[in-house]
Amino acid sequence: MNILAIESSCDETAAAVVQDGRTVLSNCVASQIEMHTIYGGVVPEIASRKHVEAVTGLADQALEQAGMTRSDLDAIAVTYAPGLIGAVLVGVNFAKGAAMALDLPLIPVHHVRGHIAANYLTHPDLEPPFVCLCVSGGTTAIVDVKSYTEMEVLGGTRDDAAGECFDKVARVLGIGYPGGGPMDRLAQGGDDSRYELPRAHVAGHELDMSFSGLKTASLNLIHNAQQKGEELSLQDFAASFGRAVSDSLVPRAMAAARMKGYGRLAVAGGVAANSRIRADLQAACAKSGDKLYLPELKYCGDNAAMIGCQGFYEWKVGHVAGLDLNAYATRDI
Ligand code: KG4
Question: How large is the ipTM?
Fold first, then answer.
């Protein structure tokens, strides 16, 4: 089963060919980051236009790298939600055109399901059920992955996503966009208890989180230091911030794993690349005895291989769409 997968939900256009769900034959990503950096964040209109320019060439490139022609394909999978609506629409329309022209099934894939599936690409032994901590620029959720296609959100952020929080704070510090990677690198060797930052609790909802208070407290701390002419240690601040994010995510992910008792915990999404979060999860799982699954760094950020992987499992249970498939900015997992 050779699936051509397309991903265009935010600022990366991606195309991949995936065989039988788990074998990646090609994985092409065209990042627009450089384009958006000058604005300090993703400009939706620019993102959509860049997707339009890139998607056809990238799909051809993915086929070429896989050593295939169009006639070798068995299905087209595409991210249909969630994301920037204009951006998602580009991928969906391209996929619809390809499915119609090649007379192939069209498989709609939820972006966060794709991030979860990135773990199947890295870990051939991983099968549901397991608990997955999904942390990206737009999502922060703890998901009960009951089967390849049945999922339930156990908890998540009530406001900002963890990645968004990294990005906003990094922008104010002037250390680039997207900010998670630079903040992570900056934090190496820093004193993580130098700056006091809040950890929010959502009363009565053990697995829910909130990052808006951390974001505001961080922005205030930076602003006050600037106002008073005090020197802020970027290294210590980044380490304190990374610790605060991890302190919100890791104990809740562990509580969910304990609650479900599957003995398997996975992590997914761009923020899953964070070294502090990875290290804290590794330490917590070593203690609890849960097996921890971390996706390879190349599959943490947006890519189409993960969409092709999840697409295979969606197709297996008959989750295919007609040419009336729509794109959605938000959609339950
Ligand atoms: O999964 P992704 O590429 O796109 C979405 O689906 O949102 O995630 C992007 C997010 C950005 O917020 C970025 O700052 C964050 O992942 N990120 C990181 C790291 N690398 C990327 N956050 C913390 N530490 C990192 N090393």
Answer: 0.98
pLDDT band at residue 52, thresholds of 50, 70 and 90? very high
* CA–CA gap between residue 292 and residue 278 (Å, rounded): 10
**Chain centroid offset of residue 318 CA:** 25
CA distances from 23 to 20, 124, 178, 192, 295 (A): 6, 10, 29, 40, 15
Mutation test residue for ligand 1: of 133, 211, 271, the one with most atoms within 8 Å of CB? 271
Catalogue all structural domains in the chain, each as residue range(s) with its CATH number: 2-115+301-316 (3.30.420.40), 127-299 (3.30.420.40)
The ligand 1 atom nearest the CA atom of 276: 24
Residue 180 CA to ligand 1 center (angstroms) comes to 6
CA of 40 to the centre of ligand 1 (A): 15
pLDDT at 35 over 90: no
CA of 322 to the centre of ligand 1 (A): 32
